[in-house]
Amino acid sequence: MYNKITIIAASISLATLLSACNEQSSTKQAVTLDNETNKASYTIGVQMGSQMAGIKDMINQDALFMGFKDSMAGNDPQLSAEDMQATMQDFQKTVLEQQQAKQQEVSTSNAAEGEKFLAENKTKEGVKITESGLQYLVLKEGTGEIPAATDTVVTHYTGTLIDGKVFDSSYKRNSPATFPVNGVIKGWTEALQLMKVGAKWKLFIPSELAYGERGAGASIGPNQVLIFEIELLEIKKS
């Protein structure tokens, strides 16, 4: 635990120190990035700053800078090791609570927006709904076989959020995706077992048939409805 706390504290210090130093030396000449040391130092600052930007408002930069100077000068810390460790444990707890609250706020908002979108979308011409709540629109009928859950398929697809933002596309990579039918999100698994080879469908996938409350990476938030245009190119039999 102590190592983790130490790393977090060091990261916060590096991230915030640049801002603190800049405020206190704004009249001085900017550092020139013309050597390896300065470039490495700048790169570390950028990386740490981006990682800790979310908690910058929770840091008192004057106090941070004071601690940094005491450490660099070899002065005894003004807080005991036990006090600093306890403080960082409390700080981590506060950060976690705020992150969880923010996550819940985003989750609730996404769920409401998704529910509204699906309610309106299901009334559009050609949109069909399965028992699970999956919505789909047939863009092109296929003429080949229908894959089973145990089959592996080759597809082209584009995935977007309901606001139109593209988060993934095999077309952009110019490389079809190959995967087992039962190895993807529930909405895909269901749809693929209804499609014939050669078909192209547009899927409107409720969050519970996609990534649910956990989301996926930085692009897909909690409780987000996903839209896919998917083209079934080939079945690779098991």
Structure in words:
The protein has 238 residues and is of the alpha+beta class. Strands 1, 2, 3, 4, 5, 6 and 7 form a seven-stranded antiparallel β-sheet that branches. Strand 1 and strand 2 form a beta hairpin. It is elongated, with a radius of gyration of 26 Å. The N terminus is likely disordered.
Would you summarize the structure shown here?
The chain is of the alpha+beta class and 238 residues long.
Main attributes?
6 helices; 238 residues; disordered N terminus; 7-stranded antiparallel sheet; alpha+beta
List the helices and strands and how they pair.
Blueprint: H1 2-24, H2 36-52, H3 61-73, H4 81-121, E1 128-129, E2 135-140, E3 152-161, E4 166-169, H5 170-173, E5 177-180, H6 186-192, E6 200-205, E7 226-236
Helix pairs in contact: 1-2, 1-3, 1-4
The computed structural class is: alpha+beta
What's the count of strands? 7
Q: How many helical stretches?
A: 6
Return Rg in Å. Answer: 26 Å
Termini separation comes to 47 Å
Rough outline: elongated
Indicate the mean pLDDT.
86
Low-confidence stretches: 1-11, 22-27
Helix content: 40-55%
Strand content: 15-25%
Element order: H for helix, E for strand = HHHHEEEEHEHEE
Oligomeric state of the chains?
single chain
* Major sheet summary line: 7 strands, antiparallel
